[in-house]
Write the structure tokens for this entry.
Amino acid sequence: MSIPLHECIYPSGGLRLKDAQEIMFSTFDRNQVRFFNLIIAWPGYDPVEYPIDIGTNEAPITRVGLARQIAYHFFGFATACHNGIFTQRSDFQWKIGGQDGYSFHQMHLSTFWNIEDTSWSASIRVLENV
């Protein structure tokens, strides 16, 4: 199951986000680590890193807060691709932006996983007909 990224930007986190107020990364000491890196490695584009603020020990990030930050960063990435700031070098079937590329509204968040240390990535599904 996945949730449309554009729904994650809503204050409620979207109607399909399960356990929206669940505390994320409960085992981390936020006095030592306050940010993770979201790595966006879209096919054909150079990888890009964005910071994810995981909150403080007193106000840790929730599932809805994490989904919102991921969505905002993918929105920024899609906008940069559309505006030609990020250019595609290969895998042209995965183009973002323009009349023949995918749009942010076609992107759905499936999972979020740890790559290494404080580097994380999101699995995004792209739906053809949205």
In short: The chain has a mean pLDDT of 90.
